[in-house]
Amino acid sequence: MGGMRKVSAFAIVAIFTITVFTTCDNTLDLLATIEEEVKTANAQELGYTVTYDGNGHTGGNVPADPADYLEGRTVTVLGNAGSLVRTYYSFATWNTNFDGSGASYTTQETFAMPAADVTLYAQWTALRYTVTYDGNGATGTALGDSSDYLGDAMATVKGLGTLAKDFHTFTGWNSASDGSGTAYAIDATFTITGNATLYAIWAASTYVAGSFQNDSGIYVPCFWIGTERTSLPANTETYNACATAIYLYGGTIYTAGYYYNGTKQVACYWAGTTKTDLVVTTNPGYSTTATSIYVTSSGVYTGGYYSDGLYGRPCYWADTTRQDFYRPASASSSVASIYVYDNTVYASGKYLNGDYYVPCYWAGASTLDIDTRKDLAVTGETTHGYAQSIYVTSGPTVYTGGFCVTSSVWTACYWSGQTRQDLVVAGASDTSANSICISDGTIYAAGNYWLGTSMVPCYWHGTGASMTKQDLDPGSCQLMEATSICVSDGTVYTAGYGRDVYYASDPCLWTGTVKTELEGHRDNSDPVAIAVPLP
């Protein structure tokens, strides 16, 4: 120790050699004794070592202590400098026994070196993991999972609880919010490899408005959710009725249309299946028609027109209060489509100017201010124009879709503001655009064109003059019209109807270009399947 005299191993060997040759007996015993003395002296000179053991680590490097410690000297415990890791565990401390039953030491803790080599074993704490369920835009609460899981444990996927999302159907859980990860069904199992979040995946349901003919030959207004049809109440025991447009808001399906009451046509809208009539209160005998609907937090806006006995008058109803648009005093006008943007009501339609219909849109309603009506460019003075659909974007920029008719030739087009862009189909005799929408800066217009003896459903998409036509699957129908379009999550949905060679009519829906027939009727009249609003 402190007063020990340092003796070299060479000196000891020399003493050993001299002793051997001066001893008479018990040579072997003396050799063993001196060998032990040599070992002891060398240990005191060279000291003892401290070794670190990862104890099941799966990555990183164990720390190394190059020092030799004499008995009683102070040892400072090294930290996890080599970034030791073990799957599903976190590093805790060091211990003199691999099972943690010995002396434990933390980083920078000290101990006195014993008269023996020391091995310090890494001690690991098992990690606990959770599974979280995210409604991904839904309301309500998932069932949740209060368990703490060890790594490699199996977890069972929980149910929906009270989660719900308006106008959407739950399709399962996924490890990615956009559905690009691993999909899991309720009650499926998966291996825990860390904290997990499962996102509810929702598919937007499709909604189509129209009518069908019942067994008595009466047209009944309805809407379809997917392919399931719901009838709307109207005076259909005796007279026809039709749903013309649909809108989704606040968890409620709103549908616009009209019915005949025996003496006149009555515009109306349905909130769910509850009908509200839209009339001309100053002249209750006037017929009214609702062609379009839009709903905001301010109320229900329904576009259409009424007849004063001589002319059609363009208007909209805010809830049940009618507001007329500007129109010529002695000419018919009508609203085909309505849009509400920044508290202003916009509507597309047409008015009769002499012998020709002029396409137009209204920005705000005023019976006196002609500047609220914007005429749209046509191909010539002897051309009819029809603005069938309207969509408004920031700016505001007003887009309308429709067609012009010159010498009985129909040309599909859309207008940006008041500037017309024709939608040409090579080899087609007539084209028509019936609906327009904008998604991520791209213009989409649904319609159809004549090719030989077939009417082909299609939609155009693009910007400016760069519009690409996409044909839709006609199925067995020879005559098809695409009447409404919208885009949701990058998927194009188009609704319409068609007739086969026997003129039997059927409403249908296209998802992308794939056709799904809706429950309709089989006679020689046209159903209407005209809206596919998706949130």
Report on the architecture of this protein.
There is one protein chain. The chain has 2 helices and 39 strands. It has 4 domains: 38 residues; 77 residues, no CATH class; 73 residues, no CATH class; 313 residues, Methylamine Dehydrogenase, Chain H (7 Propeller). The N terminus is likely disordered. It is elongated, with a radius of gyration of 42 Å. The chain has a 4-stranded mixed beta sheet, with no helix packed on it. α1 runs antiparallel to α2. With 535 residues, the chain is mainly beta.
Helix/strand class: mainly beta
Gross morphology: elongated
Give the neighbour order of strands across the main sheet.
1-6-3-4
Query: How much of the polypeptide forms β-strand, as a percent range?
Result: over 45%
Task: Record keyword descriptors for this entry.
535 residues; mainly beta; four-stranded mixed sheet; elongated; disordered N terminus
What are the SSEs and their pairings?
Blueprint lengths: L8 H14 L4 H20 L3 E4 L20 E3 L12 E7 L8 E2 L4 E3 L5 E9 L4 E4 L19 E3 L11 E7 L8 E2 L4 E3 L4 E9 L2 E7 L5 E7 L2 E4 L9 E9 L2 E9 L4 E7 L2 E5 L9 E9 L2 E9 L4 E7 L2 E4 L8 E9 L2 E10 L2 E8 L9 E3 L7 E11 L3 E10 L2 E8 L2 E4 L8 E9 L2 E10 L2 E10 L2 E6 L7 E10 L2 E9 L5 E7 L2 E4 L18
Parallel strand pairs: 1-6, 7-12
Antiparallel strand pairs: 2-5, 3-4, 3-6, 8-11, 9-10, 9-12, 13-14, 14-15, 16-17, 17-18, 18-19, 20-21, 21-22, 22-23, 24-25, 25-26, 26-27, 28-29, 29-30, 30-31, 32-33, 33-34, 34-35, 36-37, 37-38, 38-39
